[in-house]
Write a structure and sequence with these properties.
alpha/beta
C-alpha cells in the first residue's frame, strides 16, 4: 500500500487563538480499571513508578529504562549530556516512571537523538526562553521508532524538554509497539496523538512546568481543540475519531478545502503584522515614545513573521497528504483498506484507547485543579508597552491625524 510518510510532530503555533468551553471527564471506576491494565501495578517497578518513589528507586528505573534506548549522540559529548539530562528530568514525573515501567515490561525499543529542525527558533515568552516551531518528532516507520528532539533545547536557559520527550517517547514511540497487528490502522485514530499530548502535559504538570495555551484550550474543550490542530501538521490532518474512521473521505475533502482557505489568509496575516510594526514606528518616530518600551511587542511581531513560512509549508504539506489519501482511497486497494478502518473502529483496541484518553484527561484536570491560565501569567516587564495598551493608543491615534501611517 502506498502511504504518506508519517512523522508524529509536537508543534507550537504562535499567536494561535482557540475558543474554549466545558471539558469532559472519565468515570472514576472505569478509569481505575483501565489504569490497572495500562500500568501493571504488580510489576517489580511499581515502587519506582509511584509518586512516593525514593531517589534510589527512580535511579534504578531510569537505568533499566535506558537499556531500551539507543542513544545517538553523533559523537558529540554535549549532545549525550543533553539527552541524559532530558531523560533524568522526565523521570522525575510519576506518570513518566509509570509508563516507562510499561515500556520495559513490553520490551519496547526506541532510538533517541537530537537534530536541527528547519523553521524552529528560540524566543522569549514571559521571560522564559522557549522553542517555537517543531519541538520534536517521532519516525514511527522506523524499527525501532526514532525520536528526534530539537537541538535548540541544548541552548542555555531554554525551557526543559521533558514534556516534549515524554510526548514523543512514551506516547508515539511506545504506542507504535503496543498496536500489534493494527500498526497500519492505529495512526489514523485521533487517540494516538491525543494520548501522546496528554502524557506530555501530565509530565509537565507533575514537574511544575507552566502549562501552555494549548493545554488550557484542550482542557476546556477537548473536541474543539482536536479539530483546531488538524491544520497544524500533515499528520494531524489525517487523524480521525473512531466514528470518523468509518467514512473518512468526505471529511478529508472538507479539510483539504479548509487548508486552501487558510493558505489564502496568510498574505493578509503577514500584512497585518507588518502594519503593527509600522504603528510601533509611528509612536517611536512621531510621538517620541521610548523605542525600548516596544521590545517585547517587536519580538512578538518578528516571531510571528518568522513562523509564517512554516505555517505556509505545513498547509501545503497538509494538502498533499490529504490528496494522496483521497486518491488512494478511490483505488481498489484503498477501498479494501477503508473497509478495514471501518471494521477496526469498533474494535477492542480503540475502545480501550478511548477509555485511556478519558482517564488521563481526568488526571490532568486533577493536576490543574484550583489553577487557571491567569494564575500562570507573568506580569508585563517593567517599562514594556503591552498589546492591550498599544491597541488603545492606536484607537486614539486613528481618530486624529494618523490615516497615512499604514500606507
Amino acid at each position: 500500500m502506498k502511504t504518506f510518510r508519517l512523522f508524529l510532530f509536537l508543534a507550537l503555533a504562535p499567536l494561535a487563538v482557540v475558543a474554549v468551553a466545558a471539558r469532559a471527564v472519565a468515570d472514576p471506576e472505569e478509569a481505575a480499571q483501565e489504569g490497572s491494565v495500562m500500568f501493571d501495578g504488580g510489576s517489580r517497578y511499581a515502587a519506582a513508578a509511584s509518586p512516593q518513589a525514593t531517589a534510589q528507586d527512580r535511579a534504578q528505573l531510569l537505568a533499566e529504562f535506558k537499556k531500551h534506548i539507543e542513544m545517538d549522540d553523533h559523537g558529540v559529548p554535549a549532545e549525550r549530556a543533553a539527552m541524559d539530562s532530558m531523560l533524568a528530568k522526565m523521570m522525575e514525573s510519576s506518570t513518566a516512571r509509570e509508563i516507562a515501567a510499561r515500556f520495559i515490561k513490553e520490551n519496547a525499543r526506541v532510538k533517541f537523538s537530537l537534530g536541527e529542525i528547519p523553521g524552529s527558533t528560540v524566543v522569549t515568552v514571559d521571560g522564559q526562553k522557549t522553542v517555537w516551531g517543531t519541538r520534536g518528532y517521532t519516525q514511527v516507520d522506523k524499527n525501532p521508532p526514532c525520536v528526534v528532539m530539537n537541538k535548540l533545547y541544548m541552548q542555555e536557559g531554554v525551557e526543559p524538554g521533558a514534556g516534549t520527550l515524554a510526548h514523543e517517547m512514551l506516547g508515539h514511540a511506545l504506542e507504535k509497539q503496543l498496536a500489534g497487528g493494527l500498526k497500519d490502522v492505529y495512526v489514523y485514530n485521533t487517540d494516538e496523538e491525543e494520548n501522546a499530548r496528554l502524557i506530555g502535559w501530565l509530565v509537565g504538570a507533575e514537574l511544575n512546568f507552566k502549562p501552555d495555551d494549548e493545554t488550557w484550550a484542550y482542557m476546556q474543550n477537548p473536541d474543539e481543540n482536536r479539530e483546531y490542530i488538524k491544520l497544524m501538521s500533515p499528520y494531524y490532518s489525517l487523524t480521525l475519531t473512531s466514528e470518523e474512521m468509518k467514512d473518512p473521505v468526505p471529511l478529508y475533502k472538507k479539510r483539504f478545502a479548509t487548508a486552501e482557505k487558510e493558505l489564502k489568509k496568510i498574505p493578509e496575516t503577514e500584512k497585518n503584522r507588518r502594519n503593527w510594526a509600522k504603528i510601533v514606528d509611528h509612536f517611536v518616530n512621531i510621538h517620541k515614545m521610548d523605542a525600548a518600551s516596544f521590545q517585547t511587542i517587536r519580538e512578538n511581531i518578528s516571531n510571528g513573521l518568522k513562523y509564517l513560512p512554516v505555517a505556509r509549508g505545513n498547509l501545503e504539506q497538509i494538502k498533499e497528504a490529504l490528496q494522496e489519501r483521497i486518491t488512494f482511497f478511490e483505488s481498489e486497494e484503498g477501498r479494501a483498506f477503508l473497509a478495514k478502518l471501518a471494521k477496526e473502529a469498533d474494535g477492542e483496541y480503540f475502545r480501550q484507547k478511548d477509555a485511556v484518553i478519558l482517564e488521563r484527561r481526568e488526571r490532568l484536570a486533577a493536576q490543574l485543579a484550583g489553577k487557571t491560565q491567569e494564575s500562570f501569567r507573568t506580569p508585563p516587564a517593567v517599562g514594556q508597552v503591552t498589546w492591550d495598551q498599544l491597541v488603545e493608543l492606536w484607537k486614539g491615534e486613528k481618530k486624529s491625524c494618523a490615516s497615512g501611517v499604514l500606507k
